[in-house]
Specification:
- By secondary structure, the protein is an alpha+beta fold.
- 47% of the residues lie in helices and 23% in strands.
- It has seven helices and twelve strands.
- The chain has a five-stranded antiparallel sheet.
- The radius of gyration is 37 Å and the shape is elongated.
């Protein structure tokens, strides 16, 4: 490497001044390089932080260049491939349906960039729809309750005068009225909420309530119901708890009715379990479908269901401080209740 040499014609003081200036320039160069490195590091850290923030957002996010190309997006946006093409960029806020889901889209224009966010509001829309359906159902239940009461009185009067050969017709009308009255009661209870009034009850009382309800329920097949209730006393609301068990028994009856067999069995058992009582309801009917949607309001797979029985059953059980579980194979519902409040 050639060494740098100063011209021989330069004076000593000029040489010293030039060397000092060169040394100062070298120091400034090193200083600028350090600042550049520090600035680059800060920029990279800022970029990493921005990416982390964007990835942490629960909604999809796109940042577009002035010509419409994607400058930046997060993984939520990447997972919604095709949604961006459906968005009208001239709007500030809109709702877009995409792949059976609903998204609230907000658009902001900032200098040469366009920022688009899409939030999944499917669950919110579902809850709004269920609330609306609940209000409508409660209103209809109120309107239907009075004429149903009048019909029930007329049927009671008719039962005293009917000819013996026509008695089965009257009995079927009574069972149909029982079903309608039960739907009305369930709907109003769901709309108002469950408030148990606890008293000391025995499981014998609970069994008699269930048997009486089954006697009023209409079904066509030979269904054997096996009760195995322990002789235990618990703190519970007799009316609500019997309603919860009846819902599960009626579901079991309907499952057998929908099966290909001409007969079926239902087993209802109780046993002591960790300072509480465990109920199990098992049947030989058709298997459970869509178990993840069983406790969703107004959702039913039955031909004659209204979609509130199971969710009301869960509300009653939880209001008593208990839990309810489902077993798929063999098909079984399990309810655990504490003995005391």
């Amino acid at each position: 490497m050639n060494e740098f040499k100063l011209p021989a014609s330069m004076k000593e003081d000029e040489k010293e001044l030039l060397l000092a200036q060169l040394e100062n320039l070298i120091e400034q160069t090193y200083s600028v390089e350090k600042e550049y490195i520090a600035l680059t590091s800060s920029y990279n850290q800022l970029q990493s932080l921005i990416k982390q923030i964007i990835e942490a957002l629960p909604n999809a996010l796109w940042v577009l260049n002035e010509e419409g190309s994607v400058f930046l997006h997060n993984s939520e946006a990447e997972a919604l491939d095709g949604l961006l093409n459906r968005i009208n960029l001239n709007l500030h806020e809109t709702e877009v349906a995409f792949k059976e889901r609903n998204f609230l889209v907000k658009i902001t224009h900032n200098d040469s960039k366009t920022i688009i966010s899409a939030t999944d509001i499917t669950e919110q829309k579902r809850k709004e729809r269920l609330a609306s359906m609940g209000q409508m159902a409660a209103h209809l239940a109120h309107e239907i309750r009075n004429p149903i009461g009048s019909i029930a009185l007329l049927v009671s009067s008719l039962a005293k005068r009917v000819m013996p050969k026509n008695q089965p017709i009257v009995d079927e009308i009574r069972r149909s009225l029982f079903r309608v009255e039960r739907i009305i009661k369930t709907t109003l209870m769901y709309s108002k909420g469950v408030q148990p009034v606890r008293t000391k009850i025995t499981l014998d009382q609970l069994e008699k309530e269930c048997q009486a309800a089954v006697d009023c329920y209409s079904y066509t097949k030979n269904i054997r119901i096996h009760y195995a209730f322990s002789n235990i006393t618990i703190d519970a609301d007799l009316g609500l708890l019997s309603l919860a068990l009846q819902n599960l028994i009626f579901n079991a009856i309907d499952a057998i009715e929908e099966s290909d067999e001409d007969e079926g069995d239902i087993w209802i058992r109780t046993e002591s379990y960790h300072e509480g009582i465990l109920f199990s309801i098992e049947d030989s009917g058709v298997p459970i479908e869509h178990s993840d949607q069983l406790f969703e309001a107004f959702h039913t797979t039955k031909t004659k269901g209204h979609g509130l029985g199971l969710i009301l059953t869960r509300q009653i059980v939880e209001a008593h401080g208990g839990t309810i579980q489902i077993e798929i194979q063999p098909k079984k519902f399990k309810i655990y209740l504490p003995l005391q409040a």
